[in-house]
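dumping these here so i dont lose them again. two proteins, back to back, each one seq then structure tokens. dont judge the mess
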Amino acid sequence: MEQALRLAIVGKAVSIDLACVNQQRYFINMATGGFGTRITTETPEKLKSALGGVSYFIHGLMRMDQLKADSCEIQGPDFTWQGDALVIGIGNGRQAGGGQRLCPSALINDGALELSIVTSQEILPTLLHSLTRDDDNPNMVTASLPWLTIRSPNEMTFNLDGEPLSGSEFRIEVLPDALQCRLPPSCELLA
């Protein structure tokens, strides 16, 4: 607590990026969609309180019978992907809400969003690999983009820093240097 207070009082403010969704909603850290988002929104509060981040993994294993990928198309500058996504992470930061490093190379002040798509091929090995390891995953598609659009024939739900947003079309863009924030000088999220 003392270090956080000292940082708030004497720390130097740095410019960080903000992400805008459909010109009306915002997030600083990460937007997530797919099966993982359904799990985070459905995991019981008592389980989260007792076990922390591992509760999402346990609840996900308990719901494997309901595992369903989202069919969608994602486009951005010089990037197009279409298929079935098990998990979609759009990161200005690196970790989703349970500590999963979905976008391990994201920086909060580089003017870009990191996209990570966990495809639905070989579902269980892909999911376990994405949650437990940072190395290259053959069933994971990644890109660094200033903006992207996601279109789906069905309604999808994205979790924007903990706030759900549902729809079938999303335009997500980075707003460079949108906020001033006091971060530790050794913060690994800074370029």
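---- next one ----
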Amino acid sequence: MTAPKFCKTKIVATIGPSSWDMDILTQMVEAGVDIARINASFADFDELKRVSQMIRKISQRVSLILDTQGNKIRVAGFETERVLKKGQLITLIPSTKDITNEDQIQITYDNLNKDISRNTIILLDDGNIELKVKEIVDNNIVCTVQNHSILHPHKTVNIPNSFLNFPLLTQKDKQDIEYAVDLGYDFVALSFVQSSKVVKLTRELLGDSDINIISKIENQAGIDNFDDILKYSDGIMIARGDLGVEISFEQIPMIQKQLIYRCRAVGKPVIVATQMLESMRYNIRATRAEVSDVANSVIDGADAIMLSAETSTGKYPIESVETMNTIALSVENILTPQVVYGRTTASLDTDELCKSVFNLTNSLNLKSVLVISQSGKSVQSLSRHRLSIPIYEVTNDFKRVREDNLLRGVKCYYAQSLSDDRDKSIERAVEIVFSYGELDFDDKIAIISGSSIKNKSINSILEIATVKDILGR
């Protein structure tokens, strides 16, 4: 049986009740899952530990993301559905106050009255219910219902175009971040990031840990402060669910394209998330619109595309992964490399070197690029150009294997030790990739490695060679 071919765009799958079974999770990884996401909103420490142990048992290569709950506002104080009628007056009250009549609804943000004013629009249940603020009396918010609807318990509350004075991190978030460190997660995804302050605070909490921080952009403040957030983050997730409620939904496609390009310009990975194959929660086939959505995210240049409910609670988690892989592969097969301009955290010399590799792929019949990596900066700089050929990274830092697993087009290999002698380290790196069947003897490859000259200020060398020449040295 021929092994499946995997797309260059990385696949993130959310793990939940539908994918808890070891056999199903194994098949998902075999179908192309690169990164497993666990949503801390629905998981305690035992769950985070159990899932991480399952993933590590299946594959040491699969990366782990712990996604924090963040400052999510929900309705509270009732356990059966409420019928709301257009024109009806309802009062939102703090969760600390008791409900005294059927027109009151608790919300889990007790100071909302301080952050809004008359005529503010408040959305419930992911935007399905619209309220308009009529008046604010102390900490009670009197609203007019704008459409007939049914409100179920614990549904979400969104206030579009408003900066809310939440604590930077909730107590649960802080605890979950500590769990991520203890359990050896590779990434922490911060929900509802409004400014870089929360990223800096999280960095302090992580201490000496080498966990990377992914900032989720899902509100107007996150968009307004994006460049500053990006500067202090290791990666970005465009979380289109809440973002599509917080801002006008028709803006989402262009915002997605703009944010992806800005991430690529600085060489930081970007994930596109939410409702990519939503119908596959219940159906074995995706809709044509969903196929186009996934394809366009790949064309836009995303490093990774994410499955949420499709794999956590849906009926077809394995098929969802297979579908996403098939769509991405079909698009990547006809895409040409996409050069991008801008400075990464690597040196100017490294950025220019990687741009040269991009140009060489168009003029030479290169089969792949091999990078011998210490810091990972060369790989980030190279990956952002979305080469049509694979990038193989060989490193003696095993943590980097899972961190750079998020980068598009990059496949990482671990070498327990690499010689200080440049020729020997190159030969060892080529041997490793060759042993996995990724290279043939006659393949012409580009090699990026450090110099053997000690104390050299510019420490990257580009070499073009065939595999047989390297292994026959």
